[in-house]
Amino acid sequence: MKTDPPIEPERAGPADDDAAIRTLVTRLSRPHPSGGAVIERATILAEGAGANALLTWIAAHAGEPERAAPATSGRGLHSPRHNSPEAGSGTPLRYVLPPGALA
Q: Residue 23 burial (CB < 10 Å; 0-12/13-18/19+)?
């Protein structure tokens, strides 16, 4: 009895990777008031091993980290200290893509 060799999946080229990542970013993002799209950092990290590819794709398509709102200068009992992690970590919480980046 003769068996056929296993079928190898076709290797995706760069254009296929770009289209797949664009589809994923479109699915994970939501509209931004600027007219573009916004994607949360937590959502990107939840993709696991593909997170680096997503961040690279976002940077290559003019996506930028959203600037955090300026911290208030509250000095009350419940305000964060200036040296605490809550005072500003520098890690962006979301990335903003310009209008037309997902078109």
A: exposed
Token pair 């939501």 in the structure block, residue = 30
Give every CB contact of residue 67 below 8 A, 6+ residues apart in sequence.
none
Q: DSSP characters for 4-40?
A: PPPPPPPPP-HHHHHHHHHHHHHHH-EE-TTSSEEEE
| pTM, entire model | 0.68
Cα 75 to Cα 82: distance, rounded to the nearest angstrom: 10
- Find where tokens 């060799």 sit: 5
For the segment 23-78, what is each residue's pLDDT rounded down to a tens digit?
A: 999 999 999 999 999 999 999 999 898 899 999 999 999 999 987 665 566 667 77
Q: Is 63 exposed, middle or buried (0-12, 13-18, 19+ CB in 10 A)?
A: buried
CA–CA dist 65, 44 (Å, integer): 13
User: Which helix (DSSP H) or strand (DSSP E) does residue 66 occupy?
Assistant: none
